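Reopening: structure tokens for the flavin-adenine dinucleotide complex, inputs below.
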Amino acid sequence: MSESVDVVVIGTGPGGEDAAGRLAEAGLSVVAVESRLVGGECPYYACVPTKIMARASDLLAEARRASGRAGTTTVKPDWTPVEARISDEATDHWDDQAAVERLEGKGVRVVKGHGRITGRGEVTVDGRVFRASRGILLNTGTSPSAPPVDGLADLPYWTNRDVVRATGAPKSLLVLGGGVVGVELAQIFARFGTRVTIVEVAERLLAMDEPESSELIEDVFTDQGITVRTGAKVTSASYDGTSFTLSLPDGDLTADRLLVAAGRRPNIRDLGLDHYDVDETARALPVDDRLRVTDGLWAIGDITGKGAFTHMSMYQSAIAVRSILGEDGPAASYHAVPRVTFTDPEIGAVGLTEKQARDEGLNVRIGKTRIPESTRGWIHGSPGNEGFIKLVEDADKGILVGATAAGPYGGEILGALATAVHARVPTETLRTMIYAYPTFHRAIESALADLG
Ligand SMILES: Cc1cc2nc3c(=O)[nH]c(=O)nc-3n(C[C@H](O)[C@H](O)[C@H](O)COP(=O)(O)OP(=O)(O)OC[C@H]3O[C@@H](n4cnc5c(N)ncnc54)[C@H](O)[C@@H]3O)c2cc1C
Ligand SMILES: NC(=O)c1ccc[n+]([C@@H]2O[C@H](COP(=O)([O-])OP(=O)(O)OC[C@H]3O[C@@H](n4cnc5c(N)ncnc54)[C@H](O)[C@@H]3O)[C@@H](O)[C@H]2O)c1
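Re-run output (same inputs, fresh job):
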């Protein structure tokens, strides 16, 4: 026997949780299916715990920087408060009871288990069958994936889901993958005294960002004692019960712990998408600008391939909800997607990189300025003032199509640049703005003056 509802949401990442609540509050009968924890990766294994770690590691770095500038400091790192804050305050010991009750309070029926589409408009969870008259919303997210390195699969390595449960900083750590997860966690542990080596197969860290961002992070990391190996092809991996070894053509690397941060795979296999004639082996689900995969099937979040960020999942949730409710409103637009890598210096970026803009055939003008050369950067002092602002202008239209703000508070400075790219503010208008003195964001004015 099946149970009839209006909508079934499979997966409650940030967007799915939000959408289920909004749909129920709009008066629909909603079932939200979750196989792990309501809220998804972000609050329990990703954004929130890792940013708690980053905050702690920034405090250590700033305390160390006080020496010679504001007195003398002796810093003794201790992971205990970090672990306590993550387990007691942030994740409630990885218990989602409060989130489940919050969702139920909005009228959502939360069903724990693996959801699978067993027919058009039909979802089965551990033998329970739900018929969704309006449709199904997918928000199943991603899982950590390991590259096909010989011997790696069976090793007790860490992924992001283990690292957030760390009870201490290891003596030494190998980080396989120098993308966002890899660089954020590498710096965190290094500041807690761990000897860290990043092993990245691409020629640079943060390969999706501007090359200037990669260069900045590599320089800062090297100065901070983190070993960076780019263009590194790992041929095999092993563990002898005490330490991990990664073999490279020019020798072995060994450490107490291995963190695999080499990308994610979308949770879309074994979802029953064949009932909608959708390819389950795709890297992302194709969605239109209302987040429809096809009639009666919507998808939001990482699985849409539009940017694996919590803010993307939430942004798409609002649009999908309107679509499901048959309401009008702005369609999804991805020309101004912001992203922040929470290293120190922080790397904030929005829209297109210079290369992406050129590849699109735009008539590109670039404007750059270095933060240490700004008044605020100089006042802030070195180390800790490294960074730059880079603007990517569509010179024909006279608007910014991309920007990077790297440096202290780079993610906050990005706010102004994201507004400019999002609203397509004419560069001429940006030039007439008054930029407060002496802020970091005042460097935007210098970057605008450099456009050429
Ligand atoms: C270490 C790390 C740090 C990050 N830091 C940031 C950050 O600072 N800022 C930021 O914006 N983003 C960050 N991200 C990315 C962010 O976590 C994701 O983009 C965000 O969680 C949104 O994902 P989602 O909505 O697609 O779903 P997810 O959060 O992945 O949740 C999907 C949910 O669906 C459930 N599910 C899957 N399949 C099924 C099924 N068949 N049946 C039932 N339930 C199912 C899963 O159990 C999961 O709970 C980080 C990621 C990582 C790994
Ligand atoms: N601050 C944030 O917003 C934030 C933080 C963390 C993660 N995220 C999101 O999560 C997503 C996943 O992050 P991620 O860092 O896991 O993935 P990623 O795809 O960004 O980076 C993975 C890196 O691993 C490298 N790699 C792959 N195979 C390798 C191998 N065999 N040897 C060495 N290196 C290898 C890749 O070249 C790449 O640089 C990101 O795309 C991002 O959107 C966001």
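Residues 10-15, 33-37, 40-42, 46-47, 50-51, 114-115, 139-142, 160, 181, 267, 271, 301-303, 308-311, 313, 342 surround flavin-adenine dinucleotide (ligand 1) (CB under 6 Å). Residues 338-450 form a domain with the Enolase-like; domain 1 fold (CATH 3.30.390.30). Marking as resolved unless the reporter disagrees.
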